[in-house]
Input
Amino acid sequence: MDRIPVQRALISVSDKTGLAELARGLVAAGVELYSTGGTRAFLLKLGIDVRDVARYTGFPEMMEGRVKTLHPKIFGGILCRRDNPDDMQSVSEHDIATFELVVVNLYPFQQTIAKPGVTAAEAIENIDIGGPSLVRAAAKNHSFVAIATSPEQYAEILDEIQAGGTTLALRQKLAGAAYTSTAAYDTTISSWFAGQDDDSLFPPTLFISLDKQADLRYGENAHQQAAVYVDRAAHGVSLVRARQLSGKDLSYNNLLDLDNALAIVRAFAEPAAAVIKHNNPCGAAVGADLAEAARKALDGDPLSAFGGVLAFNRVVDAATSELLATPGLFIEAIVAPEFDPAALQILTTRPKWKANVRLMAAGPLDSSPSAINYRHIEGGMLVQEADVQADPEKEWKIVTHSSPPGELMPDLRFGWALVRHVKSNAIVLAKGRSLIGCGAGQMSRVDSVEIAIQKAGPRAAGSILASDAFFPFADSIAKAAAAGIAAIIQPGGSVRDDEVIASCNEHGIGMIFTGRRHFKH
Output
């Protein structure tokens, strides 16, 4: 049957959003409501007449609500096939009421486990049993029953009921959404149980539940379609959960660049700014305040900064916005914890790009970065611990005859914190805790060194060089010395470390081995 009139609705929801409007609309359409526990109490308080499921089944709620709807008179009324004589005979013999609409959303398991200090017992009590069973039963019998699992569906369901009944097309769509809902719910529970095993960082089966947030204009290139999804299990700061305050829709490339920019500024406690172009930093700096950090970051490579994306780790203020509004400067997107009203006014009215710039408010940067990285390859997924662990300075070793000058230690720390965010082979030149030259993604490390020196120009003299991995040959040291680089920090670990150290000693360059590599492919 295509259009099914709705005579009765079973309602059992944890999230009461939109429930009052739905229930009133159903009653106005002549639908008889059945409900349980908290949902029924909520509706009665609103003056909405609703039948008690326990009275209907003749079986009381028990075990502190663990057993409520698990009864043949409920599931028979949902699962009966109206065109099957045997089913309808059973309905008649056992005095079963049919339900043409089931409205269920599940216990808030995800929200519960996200709370600080939640116990295992609390988590387990928030594993819904009856709810998923109702959802699956109604979705299976969608030829005759509509299943609502989200308040966002209520308006469309009411419209069809008021037009004479739900259509098969709607019921099929709702059934698909229902199974998606229960699959995601079970995925969250499974992942939580896996997380209870301290030895199971990488469980035998990995589930990832993603909800589509939006279609994007296109992917990396105009001929590629793309979309952005939200990870249900992810919490804390992220681009996909940020609020867009102004500007055009974000593109695929915007999101990639903003994500890396945000990761960079989160690495610093001081006011910090980062400028990203093609997923590598062309500018980054810390300063006494955000405006100083922004100026230094934009000065790192002004040519490349044109059309880049920016990130800040402080609320963007008017002074910083005045700098960003400088004539001739073009910015694609900016992400920050927040933008104060004066800054927002400047950025959306003053520069030539005005309301086109994408402004993203990510919220306070007080959560920890994700501990796990996922990367798709053809036919599977690579999973690893994220490279977010601190590098203890006590493990660093000065391996040259002379130590790096003490005044360069802030730059060495800055360069080492930054280089892990640059694509390998990664070379960073820093001075005044600011990026002045970057070599990224080259097939040989010496090429990255040459590019970084070229970008820095005369500023390379007196700067520090940070390398994400060891130098396989001493040729990079000779080029660094010729450019006037004063100190080097790198992991060490090459079979030719002795040659590299000897070259540093020959040129009077102090070098630190950190003992930890930071490839980023």
Summary: Residues 168-195 form the longest helix (28 residues). Residues 8-195 form a domain with the Rossmann fold fold (CATH 3.40.50.1380).
